[in-house]
Amino acid sequence: MQLTTEYASPAELTGYARAALRDREENALSLNRWLPNATINDLTYRFNRGGGGLIEAAVYRAYDAESDIGSRAGAARVSGELPPISRKMPVGEYEQIRMRNVDTQAAELRDAMESDAEKLVNAIAARVELARGDAIFNGSVTINENNVSAGVDFGRKAGHSVTAGVSWNHKDGDDDYDAPVYDQLMSWLDVYTDTNGELPAVTLMSRKIYNLLRRNKQLRELAFSGASTAPPVLTRDGLNTVLGDFDIPPVEIYDAKVSVGGTATRVTPEDKIAFLPAQGDALGKTLWGVPVEANDPRYGLQGDGAGVAVGGYKSEDPQTLWTRATSIVLPVVGAPDLTLVADVIA
């Protein structure tokens, strides 16, 4: 395939695609709230595993006495390479013939390439979001597709991956959801605060788990303490109030799905919750490197190479116009113990 600028330049297509990517992540695929995008002019990432732990206290000294000597935690140095991801879409021979009106063909082909650029960048965003979900809930990212097998384990503490002793969809003889949810949450919050010295900011979960919480007997009784009977279902405000009353982080519902090989696939598990820190880069970042195409002067990116790069190409036999998007990207979790994940549905 040969690079072509006949209908749209790579700089124009790249700018269009990056704007579409930002819109996609702000509105649909939003785990970048905890693993925000960052660009690096390299293929390699390096970080010290750790962060989020307790702060070591200094000690007082006597006047004229020597300063106390601090120590660095024995954090493991983690490094690796960002993997490439790319996809292309054709405007085939038949489609080009349909567009061959001399007055409108160039505009129609440009529109087709821009539309394909948006589809391509959305596909890349979907795969990156799957990797973010993997990083948050599994403490690792695994790639096993297209003859590529790779992965990175961010080293979350074993005690930060737990299973509920009583499943949250368990029912008693009166058909009530009777799991001791409050007790379980408090126990897990103790683990989190023992590690980090503060409460998590949010509890990420599926709508299925959220609805189980609204029907949970223990939470309903806490919400209506002193009342002769509690309603069978808590309202949204009622649930938020009872959680807030006991310093349980507020619920954030996340149910995004993407298509993988034609199959609707959840980004995050439906049966697990995750305690997360406040939005920002405390947990880690999604690192976007510079693909080789971005350094091609014909792309005209002028120092803005990190991120998605999109160009138009032509091939012969049959004559086909391609739009190709490529990037080098991976979410990297530097402070994995700022997450705690609980499997709560059997």
Describe the structure.
The chain has 346 residues and is an alpha+beta fold. 29% of the residues lie in helices and 26% in strands. The chain has seven helices and 17 strands. The strands form five sheets. Strands 1, 2, 5, 14, 15 and 16 form a six-stranded mixed beta sheet that branches. A five-stranded mixed beta sheet has the order 8-17-13-9-10. The chain has a two-stranded antiparallel sheet with strand order 3-4. A hairpin with a 2-residue loop joins β11 and β12. The mean pLDDT is 88.
Using only C-alpha atoms, the radius of gyration works out to 25 Å
Low-confidence stretches: none
Oligomer classification? single chain
Q: Mind describing the biggest β-sheet?
A: 6 strands, mixed
The helical percent reads 25-40%
User: How many individual helices?
Assistant: 7
Structural classification? alpha+beta
| Mean model confidence by pLDDT | 88
Strand composition percent: 25-35%
N-to-C series of helices and strands:
EHEEEEHHEEEHEHHHEEEEEEEE
Identify the overall geometry.
globular
Query: What's the β-strand tally?
Result: 17
The CA-CA distance between the termini, in Å, is: 51 Å
